[in-house]
Specification:
There is one protein chain. The protein starts with 7 loop residues before the first strand and ends in a 7-residue tail after the last helix. By secondary structure, the chain is α/β, with parallel strands linked by helices. A six-stranded mixed sheet has the order 6-7-8-3-9-10, with helices on both faces. It has a four-stranded antiparallel sheet with strand order 2-1-4-5, with helices on one face. A hairpin with an 8-residue loop joins strand 1 and strand 2. The protein has a domain of 172 residues: P-loop containing nucleotide triphosphate hydrolases (Rossmann fold). The protein is built from nine helices and ten strands. The structure holds adenosine-5'-diphosphate (ADP) and magnesium ion (MG). The site of adenosine-5'-diphosphate has 11 residues, from strand 2 and helix 1.
Length: 266
């Protein structure tokens, strides 16, 4: 619970997201409620894990929290202010993503330096020399050699690419980092390395993480609190320790049992 408070940095208020699905050749179009009313507080300094089966709405929620997609209804507040009232650039500087696949999220034609400094270029107002200094500082913190500056994604390993994605997420000095399965595409041997790095960065920069994962062993290792999603709803939310020790909800119990990460008292 290092540095975590109950002070909410982001408040999610009854978010709904409906997708219209075409009904095929003769069928009527139908609606899919990917999010059916999600409310959640993200507390300053915490790691809040969001778990749930594939298709339960985790990525949809993360895209909405990042402002990449609008909710059908509901509201997100950042420091008590509706996100819709915050200028796009200002918001992006404070809330940054790390996605699952660092290969598809990094433009293959850009160098490491260009990739990492991009959020600052978009935000504007930071001189090139200052940008380079910050890129160098982040490479150092992420334990990547300086010669990486001019490398392209194709010349790097999966773990190195994910470090570049993390550096890019941090360069604008955000408060919140939304990680959607950030280690799922990596070799098992580098997963722990990247996770440890994320935890170090949290301490160093005072970050708050929303951490989406289907890997409950990872969640147990890093989360302060865990929210369990099922069919677009949060069905359980608790301190990680308590949830893993004795899940209240039947769905959570099944999720834990299917992952075989903890022995369950039946
Ligand atoms: N752009 C979209 N158009 C239509 N349906 C979508 C779209 N994005 C997600 N969905 C559907 O919404 C549900 C939730 O998806 P998603 O948020 O990706 O779940 P998760 O990340 O938990 O696997 C799924 O049924 C998925 O098929
Ligand atoms: Mg997903």
């Amino acid at each position: 619970m290092t540095g975590s408070t109950t002070d909410p940095v982001m408040e999610i208020r009854d978010i709904r997201r409906t997708y219209q699905l075409s009904g095929g050749l003769f069928g009527k179009p139908r609606n899919l409620d990917a999010l059916a009313g999600v409310s959640l507080d993200l507390r300053r300094g915490e790691v809040l894990a969001l778990v749930g089966e594939s298709g339960s709405g985790k990525s949809t929620l993360s895209r909405i929290l990042l402002g990449l997609e609008a909710p059908t209804s509901g509201e997100v507040l950042l420091d008590g202010k509706p996100v819709s009232s915050i200028a796009r650039r200002k918001f992006a500087a404070r809330v940054q993503p790390v996605f699952q696949d660092p290969y598809s999220s990094l433009n293959p034609r850009k160098t490491v330096r260009q990739l990492i400094e991009m959020p600052l270029v978009i935000a504007g107002g930071v001189r090139a020399s200052e940008r380079l200094a910050r890129v160098r500082e982040l490479l150092d913190i992420l334990r990547m050699p300086e010669r990486m500056l001019d490398a392209y994604p194709s010349q790097m390993s999966g773990g190195q690419r994910q470090r570049v994605a993390i550096a890019r997420a941090l360069i604008s000095r955000p408060e919140i980092v939304i990680c959607d399965e950030p280690t799922s595409a990596l070799d098992v041997s580098v997963q722990a390395e990247v996770l440890n790095l994320l935890m170090e960065l949290r301490a160093e920069f005072g970050l708050t993480y929303l951490f989406i994962s289907h890997d409950l062993a990872v969640v147990e290792y890093i989360a302060d609190r865990v929210a369990v999603m099922q069919e677009g709803r949060i069905v359980e939310l608790d301190e990680a320790e308590r949830l893993f020790a004795g899940p209240a909800h039947d769905y959570t119990r099944r999720l834990l049992a299917s992952a075989l990460t903890v022995p369950l008292a039946t």
